């Protein structure tokens, strides 16, 4: 992206890859080289819902396990086999391709049963049906609560005594909630396309699933988070901060953090937040609001383009708490297990533990 990303006098200056800092390097030094996801079986993801299908209705819900397939591939295959449009298939979250992932899909089949042999036909294409049930409504985006990960690491990092210390620090203080590299595409190409599209005016027909809008907003969020990692405020509450309660969407603006709120932040009960750029007035104030204005001053074209596109301003926690963390060592390998809230990336955890070109 280096040449194209800086072309055009009116375009924001973007270089790739970005130098988004780790939170542990200042105290622990840079991590050693390591490998992850050498095979799909090295990267396991399980979607966690807070509810179960009701057992009746026009939508058939399938709990599936897929290997080496994107969620979009599984959706298209299910739609084809059922003779419906992909728009009739619902899912909560997009899962990685090079992985073994478990998630729910729904398909609208009003007044009729699923095609005979559907489970066997899906299995032949790498999608195993674990269970199924009917429900009155389509599965909507973002309704799952969390994702559970189980990841295998190999390489020189396993011989580094600092690896266990880095893991312990992450469990204790959390990880920076960066959007992962998959959001931006190979060599950041999604971001380059997003900038070009926003410059000429976003149209849904050019970005039907909103992937490019998401890439632009994610880049701006990561830039804001990186600035706070650099000055050490990523895990502290600033005057005027919009705090987010851990594990919920609840948020509130702080005039001035007091001792009780700072203690809650130290316990990972609440986190500071960053802006997902869009239309609307920010509820941040004071120093925290100044950080958001810095983004619009540094990247005016991206910010203005997102506002013209009509995407609504939102917020995202700056920090991740690792749920149910576990580290297990084996012969020449190490397994990590943890859960993260929906929308969080396991790569945000891995980049603190190992050095790898894709992280």
In words, what does this structure look like?
The protein has 359 residues and is an alpha+beta fold. It has 11 helices and 16 strands. The strands form 4 sheets. Strands 1, 2, 3, 4, 5, 6, 7, 15 and 16 form a 9-stranded mixed beta sheet that branches. The protein is globular.
CATH architectural designation of the domain at 2-22 and 178-317: 2-Layer Sandwich
Largest beta-sheet characterization: 9 strands, mixed
Number of helices: 11
Strand residues, percent: 15-25%
Globally, the shape reads globular
Low-confidence stretches: 1-10
Observed structural traits:
359 residues; alpha+beta; Pseudouridine synthase; three-stranded antiparallel sheet; 30% helix; disordered N terminus
Please summarize what this structure is:
With 359 residues, the chain is α+β, with helices and mostly antiparallel strands. The protein has helices at residues 2-5, 25-28, 71-82, 118-123, 162-173, 189-200, 211-230, 259-266, 286-298, 300-309, 346-353; strands at residues 35-36, 43-48, 59-67, 89-91, 100-108, 127-135, 146-154, 175-176, 242-245, 251-253, 270-271, 273-276, 314-317, 319-320, 323-330, 333-341.
